[in-house]
Amino acid sequence: MADGGDALRSLLRAANTLLRQRRYHAALAVLKGFRNGAVYGAKVRAPHALVMTFLFKSGSLREKLQSIAQATYTHSRNLAYFVFTYKGLMALQSRLQGKKIPFHSFFAACIGGWLVFGDNNPINSQIIMYLLSRILFGLSRLAVEKGYIPQPKQDPFPLVAALIWGTVLWLFEYHRQTLQPSLQSSMTYLYDDSNVWHDVSDFLIYNKRTDSK
């Protein structure tokens, strides 16, 4: 029993020594990036899938749990693959050119995005839309910082909020099919289902009656 413990301690010491070697840092960073991508993807998707599935999806408990597990696995796997690809290509480009330049990041991410997130499925679609909203804000701020557009005299956020809500509700009311399915489900719950009730039970307690009255 003691021999087993000694072997394990020796293995851990060897692993720690390896991890501290600077010459392996780039390769090890790629592996840790894969690990972090998998963990972060699971942390982000699991609670979101849990809430959305039990709020809006029908089916048995088993089917709902399978749906949550599948969504979590897909998000976790894709993010892990992307981080692995991105960091690997970044390390390769830096090694080939002897230094890191801004184009490396763009090129590596483009390749990773094409390979990992190029499949048009619900999980990838949600991730891409999430990123799109962030980069639009980021590019707008960058354009102001670089002087390409003048600094607004007033905070433009209220106008942006008004235009976004006006547009999305117009699309929901008149061109619903253009919106992403989970957004349609959320808006149906908020704006359509709130128009229908029969008594106190489905006015205050439940969204919809489950009996045959």
Folded structure, characterized:
With 213 residues, the protein is an all-alpha fold. It has 2 domains: 10-121, no CATH class; 154-197, no CATH class. 77% of the residues lie in helices and 0% in strands. The chain has helices at 2-19, 25-56, 61-97, 102-117, 122-145, 157-174, 181-192, 200-205. α2 runs antiparallel to α3 and α3 (61-97) packs antiparallel against α4 (102-117).
Key phrases:
213 residues; mainly alpha; 2 domains; 8 helices; flat
Short overview:
The chain is mainly α and 213 residues long. The chain folds into 2 domains: 10-121, no CATH class; 154-197, no CATH class. Helix content is 77%, strand content 0%.
Compute the CA-based radius of gyration: 24 Å
Number of helices: 8
Question: SS-based structural class?
Answer: mainly alpha
Q: How many domain regions?
A: 2
Q: State the major sheet.
A: none
Shape: flat
The share of residues in helices is: over 70%
* H/E element sequence: HHHHHHHH
Measure the end-to-end span.
69 Å
- The total strand number stands at 0
What value does the average pLDDT take?
91
Contiguous low-pLDDT stretches (5 residues minimum) are none
Q: Report the β-strand fraction as a percent range.
A: under 5%
